[in-house]
Design a protein that fits this description.
Mean pLDDT: 90
Number of strands: 6
Order of helices and strands: HHEEEEEEH
Strand content: 15-25%
Low-confidence stretches: 121-126
Number of helices: 3
Largest sheet: 6 strands, antiparallel
Shape: globular
Helix content: 25-40%
Length: about 130
Amino acid sequence: MPAKAKPTTIAEYIAAAPKEAQPKLREMLKIIRSAAPDAKESLKWSMPAFSYKRILVCFAAHKEHIGFYTAAINAFPGDLSKYKTGAGSIQFPYDKPLPVALIKKITAFRVKESLEQDKHWRTGKK
């Protein structure tokens, strides 16, 4: 039996995910695209990822939740208080609606943060 090919695109990743996870994954994709319309889409660490020169956010299907991965966890402590979090990760359970406004807010924050940091990196000014 041939080995199952690893997904190489976000569409392939979603199609290969468990059927019950696919609607939430498609919704995550739509939300992130709306908050970062010019971001490059790819797979990083076998997860859908969005980036400019640096990775903004990633997400992944897990058994009971969607993992949302970002470097902006510490910027939103109050907003994230009702979710299980880790160093750089947030868990959104499948049995609850995705927090659309929060996902957009975090993604937009990462876009702004990335563009500001890259501007300073290119000019050497802070």
